[in-house]
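Standup, Tuesday
Yesterday: got the pipeline producing structure tokens again.
Today: sanity-check two examples.
Blockers: none.

Example 1:
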Amino acid sequence: MEWKGRRQSTNVEDARGRKMVAGGASLGLLLRFVGQMFGTKGILVLLGLGVVGWTLGIIDPMALMGGGQVREVQYEASPAEQEQMAFVKVVLADTEDVWTQEFSRIGHEYRAPELVVYRGQYPTGCGTGDARMGPFYCPADRKIYIDLGFYQALEQEFQAPGDFAQAYVIAHEVGHHIQTLLGISQQVAKMRGRPEYNQYSVRLELQADFLAGVWTNHNQRYLDRGDIEEAMRAANQIGDDTIQKRTQGRVVPHAFTHGTSEQRMRWFQRGLQSGDIRDGDTFEIPYEDL
């Protein structure tokens, strides 16, 4: 991917020099305080609001069970990591350019997400972010979180090297931001707790892959030979069936949350071929046909 010397996004927060330490109010202390102030009815109201917030994806209960504080620590990135940081900023800038134009085309205003680069663990609007989770999008604060160490894992553990494989990961998370802007994520969050919730999660993830493909379609002038193959390889390696085979030796379809390798590659390819955000409604298709 041709990226050096190009515009870098200013919507990137560098949190690599910050470390999360124990602290914050626990859920137990919060309940005790409310109980003392408002009695049992106050506790019931608080719990009710918590359930509603969790159902809508606004509150992560884990975020209330210990919390965390952040303090500044000494940190000096290597030249290689600094170059990787510059790459992330360029990719995010590309998503801003493409989606601003595409949203305008369908009569919407695009509001770009912030991308937070952290190390280890970091507090988010969706609870504690952990590098072991990989990159993720938090709809509560509308931010993308990534530990750059994931890219090493993507290359070594998932056998998906290449800069465009890394770009695909960011584009997928931006896809989740788009789903939040359009109200799709909120509708899926309402299904939480129902038996069919996993199917809705798969639909949401495959649509994010489609949106990553749409972004790629509008960004092809910057691609090098082999870039599409890198993205397809990454999509293949992070499919539910492939990960389950690697980690537990068997495939459990009812536990899928992101879709199979074949599905993820196919929906990315569909977005790449279409280039139109309106062609990716994964919720109108029978689940078995996704």
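Example 2:
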Amino acid sequence: MIQYTLKCSEDHRFDSWFQSAEAFDKLKAAGMVTCAICGDNTVEKAMMAPRVRPARKAAAPQAEAPAPGPLSQPSNDVEQALAHLKKQVEDNSDYVGMNFAKEARAMHVGDTPERAIYGEAKLDEAKALIEDGIPVAPLPFRPGRKTN
């Protein structure tokens, strides 16, 4: 795994992890790397300092830093707004998983009663829904997969 500091054309900076440098290049070429703040898909690697660990003998003992807060709690206003939006979507919609495109199309043509849904769709499926005039919107977060 490799962590990159990225920035979009709006100069938003954010960090993201990739399986490898090649994986980043492949995802970027496919248009799948977007700004975590504004959704812009013009994203480039930003300058960053490498993380180099000193040898065990060279590492001097350091004073303990205060423990960071839990990872599950939003740390700023944007993260809090996204967490609130995610909770609203999950509380008021049905998760349909990878059947999102099929369910959205069935509701649009009247084969299934309309209801609020969310789920996952491949890029080509999402583009086809939009091209067919079916009202859909990408979510600015990954849905929590429900396994049962």
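Quick observation on example 2: Residues 77-92 form the longest helix (16 residues). Residues 2-45 form one domain.
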